[in-house]
Structure formats: C-alpha cells, structure tokens
Design a protein that fits this description.
Blueprint (H helix, E strand, L loop, with lengths): L2 H38 L6 H4 L6 H14 L7 H10 L11
Helix pairs in contact: 1-4, 3-4
The chain binds heme C.
Heme C (HEC) binds next to helix 1, helix 2 and helix 3.
Length: about 100
C-alpha cells in the first residue's frame, strides 16, 4: 500500500468514527426524551418534571429512585440515560415544558 492510500484509509476511518460519535450524542438525548414520554407521563404530566428542570444529576438520580418506588417501570439501564438527559436540560426546556 502506498502512503497516500494509507492516509486515505486513516481519514476514512476517522470520519466514520466521528459520524458515529456524533450520532451517539443525539441518540442519548433521544433515548432520554423517549423515556420521559413513554414512562414518566404514565402517572402524571411532564409539568412535575418541568418545574424541577435546572436541577443537577444527584437530584434526578433521587427522583428516579423515588419514581421506581412509586411503580415507574424504569430499567436499571434507563436510569443513567434519564438522569443525564434531565440534568442537561435548562429550566423551561421543551418538550418537557410546554
Ligand atoms: C407509577 C406512577 C409514576 C410514574 C410512572 C412516574 N411518577 Fe413521578 N410521581 C408519581 C407520584 C405518585 C408523585 C407524587 C408523590 C411523590 O412525590 O412521590 C410523583 C412526583 C414526581 C415529581 C415531583 C417530586 C417532588 O419531590 O417534588 C417528579 C419530579 C417526578 N414525579 C418525576 C418523574 C419522572 C422523571 C418519571 C419518569 C422516570 C416519573 N416521575 C414517573 C408517580 C409516578
């Protein structure tokens, strides 16, 4: 393989990797949003969540535990995704807030 070809392979690899990394971010945000719309609205509206936006990860971690006790069907794997998503939203963010 000549040097130029090797260089092209490396570049192709990097751009594919970058594309995946970018998708990962939006994927996580989408999943967090889906957990909220699929699970968190079963018992109450998102207004309860909206009023608490701007809180940090430990707050949402505690809420996730509390909602599990209330009967929310949250998987262990959903919790960090949900916590990351909600802790990353600023007060008033849509679609949690109307
Ligand atoms: C099984 C029913 C149920 C589900 C599902 C549910 N909740 Fe709740 N939630 C409640 C009840 C009941 C309350 C009020 C009593 C309480 O605070 O525990 C509440 C209250 C809240 C509050 C206010 C708590 C406070 O201390 O001010 C927040 C925030 C909240 N829920 C977030 C969520 C989130 C985020 C989800 C999705 C993971 C969710 N809830 C799913 C039943 C549920």
């Amino acid at each position: 393989m000549n040097a130029l070809l090797k260089m092209l392979c490396v570049l192709a690899f990097i751009s594919v990797f970058a594309a995946f990394a970018g998708e990962d971010d939006s994927g996580a945000a989408k999943a967090g949003e889906q957990i909220v719309t699929a699970i968190c609205t079963r018992c109450h509206s998102t207004a309860r969540i909206c009023t608490n936006l701007g809180s940090d990860a430990p707050f949402w971690q505690a809420i996730a535990g509390k909602m599990k006790k209330n009967g929310a069907p949250l998987d262990e794997a959903d919790v960090p995704v949900l916590v990351d998503y909600l802790a990353g939203l600023t007060a008033g963010s849509k679609p949690v807030c109307k």
